[in-house]
Amino acid sequence: MTAGGTIQLAGDTSASVISFEAPRKKDRTAAARAKAYRERKKRNTKPVEGEPPSSGGLPSSGPLPADSDAAEAPDTQLLPVTAASRAVTLPSSQVKSTPSPRNYASILLVSAGVALGAVGIAINGWFARSLGASDVAGWLFLAVGVAADVVALVMPSCAAAQWQGQRKATAVAGWAIWLVTFAYALTAAIGFVAVNITDTALARAARVTPAVTAAQAALSDATMARDRECKGGIGKFCRERELAVAERRLILDHEVELVRQSADPQTEAAVRLVGWATRGILRPSADDFALLRLGLLVLLPHLGGVILMVCRVRRGSQICPPDSN
The pTM is what? Predict the structure, then answer.
């Protein structure tokens, strides 16, 4: 026998040589035997159709073969593959989250609050600038109006955040400042709404309709006829002409009143609607509805700050978060 695993047989003229490789010494450690068993099971086991492959190369549950190396390693625990171990966990970036209707409602409310706040700022700035006697005074009034309305828009959220942060004195001071700026914003809004509604109503009331034109022409004819008849003295026909002029004047006044009432059709329609809905129990006047409309037009544009406060508190975030210290 020669080195390297070669055997030569003496006495044979052919000098037969048989070569072989010496068997490798088998590693008997438990970790190596378990690893070899898992690799063999991975090669022999085919994945079930429609089912993701098992993570980590875990074998399926069942009795182990008696001639496997794993039987010699009692200290190695093989876990059965279950549905939970075969589940594939997708990364959070691939998971599509569907917004709930509550999130849509919060987004819409925040948008409405910002829109109302912007309208209130524009109203206060316009009216404040109109109060200035000069350009410089007008711009100064504009700055005061815009700043006051911005404070009235943001302060409710800040005051609520301070209250949640147990800073109650700061929260009370914030609400006091908000009341002052809110009152100023309301007065400016009253002036803006009153001026614009009055100007619009007067412009509509000054319209000349065909009925008014006809009534004016009839009154002019009656007046000219009276003047001709009464030129020679007051008599029977002169008095008749006087009555005709008075009648034409009443017709003209009636047509002008109809035009004036149609200058604000919303008020007249609302009064009639309330009377019809309540079967005559409630009969508000036109002034009552006009005051109600004035109050709503003044108040609504300045509720944006309160809407933002409610939305921010509900969603757990604040425009002015409380100090953590």
Answer: 0.52
